[in-house]
Amino acid sequence: MPQLNNATIGKAAPILPLLPSHTVWAPYHANAYTISGGPQFNHRHFKYVTLFIHPDIGAMYQMVTVHPQDQIMTGIPAADFDS
Fold first, then answer.
1. Which residues lie closer than 8 Å to 40 by C-beta, 6 or more apart?
2. What pLDDT is attached to residue 47?
3. Residue 71: helix, strand or coil by DSSP?
4. What is the pTM of this model?
5. How far apart are CA 16 and CA 10, in angstroms?
């Protein structure tokens, strides 16, 4: 099991009592959608090599919903870790 580094433990200390018996875990549901497209250009100037150019444009959307199972895990998403 990976251990938290000291900076993360310091930020989470006010909201997360790190009990030896408590496991930090929460089920989640995630969706990710990607789309991309564009043409392909072939440059056949050389006899043994064909150069390909792929100018593309794309977009990505991702949504994650966390389903905490107890009060300790419920407080973590509401905490302000930026300060």
1. 52, 53, 54
2. 87
3. helix
4. 0.45
5. 10
